[in-house]
Amino acid sequence: MDILALNCGSSSVKYQLYNWADRKVIAKGMVERIGIGDSFIIHEVPGRETYKDDYECSDHESAINLIVKTLTSRDNGVIDDLKNISAVGHRVVHGGEKFTRSVLIDESVLRGIEDVQDLAPLHNPPNLAGIRAADRLMPGVPQVAIFDTAFHQTMPKHSYMYAIPHNLYEDHGIRRYGFHGTSHLYVSKRAAALLGKPATRCNIITMHIGNGVSCCAIENGVSVDTSMGLTPLEGLIMGTRSGDMDPALPLFLANRLNLSPKEVDNMLNKQSGILGITGRFTDRRDVIENAQINVFSDAAKNSADERCILALEMEAYRIKKYIGSYTAALGRVDAIVFTAGVGENAGIIREKALENLESVGVILDKDKNAATFSKHGETLISAPDSPVKVYVIPTNEELVFVEDVVGVTSGTYNDHLNYEYTFAQSDYQP
User: In this UniProt entry, which residues are annotated as the site Transition state stabilizer (predicted)?
Assistant: First the structure.
């Protein structure tokens, strides 16, 4: 049973082809910079050299076509025919209150996802595009939707409710939902394993930092608070999203600049965050390079891009504030986990976010942190005497998708919150 997991982000598609019988990854990869320009595919097959090729993808449908072409190609493929694929699992960002668990996709599910796509305007549309593209390429193959919001359904009411008229929740479902649930679930399970404790006895703060960014407070293995809210706009500073701000700001902008609600929404979701601060970049690699943050000569400082430096300082400061607030909410923290593209690779952001947190038990090993990237796998970056352990754990949302797909299609699905990732092999670097 080969299962294809597709994770359509705002500017990327991650994929993994997994053989359930043998419990092994057949191939995995990513198409990056979709719709941005200079897009490319990275395709990895165990035992072979990594394949990389530039290929312009203007949208998510062209990216999935490229993935399928690569999986079945003569030179780099791993399957002879798409019929080898038994089922497809799709990440869907927002399920509203209608979808609280993974489901088999049919027309009613597609309509339900469309109904809430205005709550995740950067993600639900590409999620839907991925589902439809896969259905066209593999008609009749079962497809399963795995929702980012499902993991956070354990939040208590005092965490997910807003202090607005209560009928807005009762009539319109306006509340905090949270996102990146599969990533927070996976890395928290892995952190518990590295701590040598059951997840049900661990308090963990997980930081998913990519183009989208969210923080999650996990108490005894379940989500009790998270930074994103009704939509993915709330919370930390992101690639193009503002994150937390004065709630009066949208009305102020509309009145002062004579903007429509749609124009304000577009500004806050697509023109703000790191892009808004720097005026040029969303990719933190570009920001770090232009900030010359790792070069300490006076000449370099004088020539550095001040707005890129400001963007890094603002992002790290916001992360630090959330770590502090979730530490207070949890009372006891066993570990902090950084994951996703930026969290796994931007040591300077991790260092700045954790500066001066010794009072809450965080002592960073700066040398280990600076030398840690995704390729090093699961890595402890806190000092040996740090009461709170700090890990970099590469996320594996696709593995969560695979487990849910098997459960849903076989009729054995219960609740993915109870899954223990016993076959997620640790490559922990002590």
Answer: 180, 241
